[in-house]
Amino acid sequence: xxxxxxxxxxxxxxxAGCQIDKDDNVIIDIKExxxxxxxxxxxxxxxxxxxxxxxxxxxxxxxxxxxGDYKQNRRCLVAMKYKNGNWxxxxxxxxxxxxxxxxxxxSHDGNRLYFASDRPIFGDTTRNDYNIWYSDRNDxxxxxxxxxxxxxxxxxxxYFPSLSLNGNLYFTSVRENGIGREDIFISxxxxxxxxxxxxxxxxxxxxxxxxxxxxxxxxDYIIFSSFGRExxxxxxxxxxxxxxxxxxxxxxxxxxxxxxxxxxxxxPFVDAESHNFYFTSxxxxxxxNKLETIEDLKNSGNSIENGFGNIYRVSFNELNxxxx
Length: 324
Prior knowledge:
Blueprint: H1 2-24, E1 38-39, E2 50-56, E3 62-68, E4 75-83, E5 86-87, E6 91-92, E7 101-106, E8 112-117, E9 131-138, E10 141-142, E11 146-147, E12 158-163, E13 169-173, E14 183-187, E15 189-190, E16 193-194, E17 198-199, E18 209-215, E19 221-227, E20 237-242, E21 253-254, E22 265-271, E23 276-281, H2 294-301, E24 310-315
Antiparallel strand pairs: 1-24, 2-3, 3-4, 4-5, 4-6, 7-8, 8-9, 9-10, 9-11, 12-13, 13-14, 14-17, 15-16, 18-19, 19-20, 20-21, 22-23, 23-24
């Protein structure tokens, strides 16, 4: 009997140890294709707080995304790192936490991080517009951010950097040479310098709002959000345009009700290796049944799909894209 008690205690201690290990190790799979549309990293990465705009390093060893409070009064860049077979818990980047830092994008070697921030720029402490910055990876940490020069960063807002393999920069802004209320621009990278940005063609930009564009490595397709179009489902939808054989953009099409909701859907990211498509949505789940108690209201407000942003994932094949 005594031995049985000892064995029982040891077994319980073993189970407790397993539970501690399980809690310390974050389980997220980014390499397998998604089977269906689902919340990414539920209760770990996607929570009742506001998560948006995610990027995965080319080495599959780091996930960086934007985390904000419920009303996005505070927003910062948060990272999860893969080491020794496990993902770390999310932590605020060493370069973030003071200003509004959003919309990360890795360079194609993974050693430079581009992002948008409202931190003071060019020594002007009165500036709080959003501009595009970059930081280089040094000994596992990110270096002091550097702003792109004035050919990119103006006193208007510049958002959501995305780079093709040849270094061309796509971003969102409002400029005198734009087409609509907010447009997607390209700045070509030639001889180590960015050229004056120009808006993408009317197949993509309209008189309404176009923003947050992800460009493919070969610049053969672009996914972006738009608000105010007749074929929209609600608060802003994801669209795609594919280049034809002559290198011209085709008329952008709505990604449809499989992807878009009646809420804001935006911040696209495609992992070309796993063929997964990620995006942010403010969609709400749950019933509209009568609330019986205050606790019911609290539970609804503190649920993951409470109307604040979450990151969703679906197989890229679900987009039905035919790239030449």
